[in-house]
Amino acid sequence: MAKQGKKVLLIDADAQGSLTASLGFTEPDSLEVTLATIMGDLINDEEVEPGEGILHHEEGIDLMPGNIELSGLEVSLVNVMSRETVLRSYIEIVRESYDYILIDCMPSLGMITINAFASADSILIPVQAAYLPVKGLQQLIKTVGKVKRQINPKLEIEGILLTMVDSRTNYAKDISAMLKEAYGSRVRIFANVIPISVRAAEISAEGISIYKHDPKGKVASAYDSLTKEVLADGQ
Ligand SMILES: Nc1ncnc2c1ncn2[C@@H]1O[C@H](COP(=O)(O)OP(=O)(O)OP(=O)(O)O)[C@@H](O)[C@H]1O
Ligand SMILES: [Mg+2]
C-alpha cells in the first residue's frame, strides 16, 4: 500500500511484538512508548497526541509498536469501562493522518483482539496452508459475527488468505477447496495465495519488507497482487 503512495500506519497488537521486531526495532520490550502505554493513558483519561509513540520505518511506513506489556494490559482491561473500545478511541485520534491503518493481531481471541475487531472496518484472515485450524477459524468467524452485532456493525471479513503455500504439493489446493466448501458462500477466499519461500523467512531478521529484500521474487509479486485485490475492493 505504501509503495502505491498510500499513508499507512501499522499497529502491533500482539504482545510478542513480532511486527515491531521485523520492522527493525529488535527489542520491542525496551521501548518507552508502545500501544500498551497509549491504551493505558486512554484508560486513565489522559490526553494522547496523534504522533505520540509512532515510529517511522525507512520504507515510508509508520508503526505503533507493541510488546509484552500488552499481556498485562489484556488482564487489566477486564475491569475497565468501555473495555472493548479503548483501541477504537486511539484510532479515532490517528485516523485523519492515514489512508490505511493495519492492526496485526495475536493468534488468540482475548480483549486486545476484540478491541481490534471493535475498531476495524474489515478483517483479513491469514491461514497457513500447511495446517488447517478449522476449529479456530470457526471460532474466529463466530466472534467476528458477535462483535459485528454487539459493538461494530460495519465490521466485515475482507477475506481469507492462504499463506506459505508449497506449490510442489496438492495440500494447498485441498485446503483451499475445503475452505471454499466450508466458508466460500459467506467469506471471500483470496484468489492470490502467498507461496512459501526462504526469502520471506529471512526478512523478519533483516528489518525490511519483501519488496526491498527480494523485489523480483515470487512472494513480493504475490503480495503485490494481493494488495491490488484488496485495494480494488476498497475503492
Ligand atoms: N511466505 C513465507 N515463506 C516462508 N516463511 C514465511 C513466509 N511468511 C512468513 N514466514 C515465516 O514464518 C514465521 C512466522 O511468520 P509470521 O510472523 O508472519 O506469522 P504469524 O502467524 O503472525 O506468527 P505469530 O503467531 O508468531 O505472530 C516467520 O519466521 C516468517 O519469517
Ligand atoms: Mg503475527
Description:
With 235 residues, the chain is of the alpha/beta class. The chain contains ten helices and six strands, in the order E-H-H-E-E-H-H-E-H-E-H-E-H-H-H-H. Helix 6 links the parallel strand 5 and strand 6. It starts with 7 loop residues before the first strand and ends with a helix. The model has no long low-confidence stretch (mean pLDDT 93). Adenosine-5'-triphosphate binds next to helix 8. The site of adenosine-5'-triphosphate (ATP) has 13 residues, from helix 8.
Concise overview:
With 235 residues, this protein is of the alpha/beta class. The chain has helices at 18-22, 35-43, 69-76, 86-94, 111-119, 134-150, 171-183, 198-206, 210-213, 218-234; strands at 8-13, 55-57, 61-64, 100-105, 122-128, 156-163. Helix content is 43%, strand content 14%.
Structural class: alpha/beta
Query: How much beta, percentage-wise?
Result: 5-15%
The share of residues in helices is 40-55%
| Shape field | globular
Characteristic key phrases:
two-stranded parallel sheet, 4-stranded mixed sheet, 6 strands, binds adenosine-5'-triphosphate, single chain, alpha/beta, about 240 residues
List the helices and strands and how they pair.
Blueprint: E1 8-13, H1 18-22, H2 35-43, E2 55-57, E3 61-64, H3 69-76, H4 86-94, E4 100-105, H5 111-119, E5 122-128, H6 134-150, E6 156-163, H7 171-183, H8 198-206, H9 210-213, H10 218-234
The structure holds adenosine-5'-triphosphate and magnesium ion (MG).
Residues 14, 16, 18, 107, 163-164, 194, 196-197, 200-201, 204, 219 line the site of adenosine-5'-triphosphate.
